Amino acid sequence: MIRVLIAAIDRLCLFGAWIGAVATGLLAVMLIAEVAATSLFSFSQFYAVEYSAYFLGAGLVCGLGWTLSRGGHIRVGVVYERFSGRALRWLDAGCTLAALPVSIFISLAMVRFAWDSVTRGSKSFYPSETPLLYPQAVIAFGCCLLTLALVARLLRVLARLPTEDGDGPSLGGVH
Amino acid sequence: MIGPVAFVLFGLAVLLTGGLWIGISLFSVGVLSLEFFRPSMRVDRFLANDFWSSATAVELVTLPLFILMGEILFHTRLSSALFSGLAPWTNRLPGRLLHVNVIGCTLFAAVSGSSAATLATVGRITLKELLARGYNRSLAMGSLAGAGTLGFLIPPSIPMIVYGVLADVSILDMFAAGIGPGLALAAGYMIYLAIRTTITPSMVPAREESIPWGVRIRALGELWPIVFLIVAVIGSMYAGWASVTEAAAIGVLGALLIALMHRTLTLATLKASLFGAVRTCSMIALIILGALFLSKGMAALGVPRQVAGFIDSLGLSPYELILLLLVFYLALGCVLDGLSAIVMTLPVTLPLAIAAGFDPIWFGVFLVITIEMAQVTPPVGFNLFIIKGFTGDSLGRIAQASLPFLLIMVALVGVIAAFPELVTWLPRTIK
Known about the structure:
The complex is a heterodimer. By secondary structure, chain A is an all-alpha fold. Chain A has five helices and no strands. Chain A has helices at 2-41, 48-61, 64-69, 85-120, 133-158. Chain B has one domain (4-429). Chain B contains 22 helices and no strands. The model of chain B has no long low-confidence stretch (mean pLDDT 90).
């Protein structure tokens, strides 16, 4: 049962990473098109600035859960690296438990924020007047994925499974 | 009763050393301090508004683009092209092929915003070649660890983008400000290599036959893709043809063209690049969003003002303050990743530096140099880990090999403190 739940959360987090990857790709394509359009045809896509902000948000937040499961988020290792075996598992469980309340707090705040946009019918102030619900819901989804990834991590600790299946932070970027 | 300053410091110290993820620690301390000291505030609404506006801040758009560019280039054959193009030209310099580490990293830094990407891309070919040819192991590893840090100082630079957003200064000015100190640091490394190998000639193998000019000229052909990308990205920004965001988009396009030319552009590498970018962006995002929230929370609680008041009471001169901050960041860089250390402490240290009369652009460059130092200081110096992955040497040995290059970075801080124009002249001139 626990393994099924972990696998389901992992798939959801991977789906989030796909959203992030597609958003990052679309951001690049849209801005390359914008450079070409403005320099070659003196024409600007009216939605470029607005949608680049939305794609940025999705690219930054939707992969939070997947990155956690790949060991990509940074933590100070001077203490926990001194532990091993059972003690490390307890420490890991403690860290995950400590992270969960604030992650739930952020997720609930962002879900409520998106819901407020539904009830108020909030739209962007750009010419497109995009309903803000959609981009805000994507960001809230990304925050919920981080919470779910923490739950999966806790279940892994309890089930004595490896907590991270990645190779740490990526080399191509900052780290 | 415990005050907000003590609460924030104590909270961060406990959570960070306990091993909680840095971004989550920043959010936790921010939420708890506001709940305790501002009970009337709707912290969830404050957080949601801040999270939304920070995650969709257009100033950050360049961040995923430069990261994606670095990821795409990481999968090309640019590293071997750099070595073949530079090696024939360094053969006459004292220290010979060791300079390929420095010049290769300097060139790659001009198309990459990351120290780790610079080091990993250049080092995976140069280190193997240098060790196989009998160059001194320590000097080869140390020069690579030090030169890899140039990725942060020479534009485009991810820490500079982050600093520009947090400190509300022009990213273009930050990029311009990094060029002088970046080139000075590269020159410092090369001078050290020349002196060290002249004093101890056994650190380099016996001189090979001289390379004909025809071979050298032909070797330059290997470098044109990277030169083209540098001109496209940096040239377009400073010629006024493109904004920083547009230059980043041009950079992604250029990286894709190079990958196409090197026949490394496949669906698999594109997917790996995009997912690598997502992983790096998520990692940075959690820290930046947490730091921005905490800094606004601390501002609401008056923490920066109180810390500034305390430092002010010490009566330090501007140079004593910079020395104190240098020691502070060096110590912090030993246990924390450099970017996290800067992002966390900026709300307090930036007002201090400005009050002491330092230009925010100058202070940004100073901080980027301290991030570079954190890359080569154990136990969490990231460049050390990458070199360990290449050679299998112990972290202690690699750190020892990097020490002279760390000291050159410390000396650079002294140089830019004595001659701030090295930093501020170019941004002022291009305005």
